[in-house]
Structure to design on (249 residues):
């Protein structure tokens, strides 16, 4: 009798456990399906632009540093089906100065082994905001505005004089200032298939606060392996011209 009751209880317990496991599995499947649906919806509304850029410093910043060249990445998330309103995020990096010279590897080795010492200056504009576009026609103009920051950093590196492989590197100076930006441009569709591709060109104006940064000649070697760093300080106004390709709607 006791064994029979025990058997029935075990059977009922197993049946209950199986039922609960089925419910949990169903819930997990529903959650996974919901996540995939949400991810698919975001992906369908997303596009990316990869551009070559030219940075054009303005005002006092333009007096202290020259033009810069680099790359920029843009992400767009459409807020409506047609793409009139979008959230836009930009991150770019441009090098505006580079110095290089050869030097003995060390005082003990002397001039028998020489290395190349290079110093490069970079500006990093970034912003997040909104974009208003005309998403129809052969030429599709847009305007955008956002807030973000402008970063500056200078890096020195040592590489082999012949092979060019970097042996060591160090950041001499870095800073960041908040900024706001406005811009505009246009894209021209190239392909309209499953993954549309368009030619994209435009310009952004960024106005930042005061920041410290280096220019070519700001880093100087002194006797006894000492270094002199002379930073510049001013407001930061920047024009960024970009030409690239947009992938996605």
């Amino acid at each position: 009798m006791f064994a029979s009751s025990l058997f029935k209880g075990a059977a009922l317990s197993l049946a209950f456990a199986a039922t609960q496991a089925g419910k949990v599995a169903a819930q997990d499947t529903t959650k996974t399906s919901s996540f995939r649906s949400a991810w698919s919806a975001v992906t369908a509304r997303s596009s990316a632009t990869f551009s070559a850029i030219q940075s054009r410093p303005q005002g006092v910043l333009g007096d202290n540093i020259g033009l810069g060249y680099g790359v920029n990445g843009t992400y767009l998330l459409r807020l409506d089906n047609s793409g009139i309103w979008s959230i836009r995020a930009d991150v770019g990096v441009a090098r505006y100065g580079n110095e290089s010279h050869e030097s003995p590897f060390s005082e003990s080795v002397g001039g028998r082994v020489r290395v190349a010492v290079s110093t490069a200056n970079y500006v990093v504009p970034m912003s997040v905001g909104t974009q208003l576009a005309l998403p129809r026609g052969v030429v599709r103009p847009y305007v955008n505005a956002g807030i973000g920051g402008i970063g500056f950093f200078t890096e020195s590196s040592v590489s082999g004089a012949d092979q060019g492989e970097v042996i060591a590197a160090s950041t001499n100076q870095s800073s960041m200032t908040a900024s706001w930006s406005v811009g505009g441009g246009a894209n021209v569709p190239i392909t309209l298939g499953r993954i549309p591709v368009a030619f994209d060109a435009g310009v952004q104006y960024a106005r930042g606060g005061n920041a410290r940064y280096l220019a070519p000649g700001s880093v100087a070697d002194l006797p006894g392996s000492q270094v002199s760093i002379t930073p510049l300080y001013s407001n930061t106004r920047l024009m960024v011209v970009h030409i690239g390709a947009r992938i996605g709607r």
User: Anything to note?
Assistant: The first strand starts at residue 46 and ends at 58. The radius of gyration is 28 Å. Residues 82 and 195 are 16 Å apart (CA to CA). Residues 2-44 form the longest helix (43 residues).
